[in-house]
Amino acid sequence: MNITHLVLDVxxxxxxxxxxxxxxxxxxxxxxxxxVSLIEMDEKTESLKVILEGIGIYFDEIKQHMSKLGAVIHxxxxxxxxxxxxxx
Length: 88
Description:
Blueprint: E1 2-13, H1 18-26, E2 31-41, E3 45-54, H2 59-68, E4 72-82
Antiparallel strand pairs: 1-3, 1-4, 2-3
């Protein structure tokens, strides 16, 4: 079974910028589409809604990568998992 759609509530510092953050996420294995929306901004941080789509998204890898960027996942708001079909 593979995660194909993931919606995350993320808190990150102002740097990297949203385009840099989204591009960085798009480079991860299994991700084919990244949608990042700014929900709220304060003096030091940004709250984001991050939607990731792909084939075989690896949640632990995403969490580790975001941590390297200074970001923290506050919640997982939606997950879609699809079974791989076996062709015989």
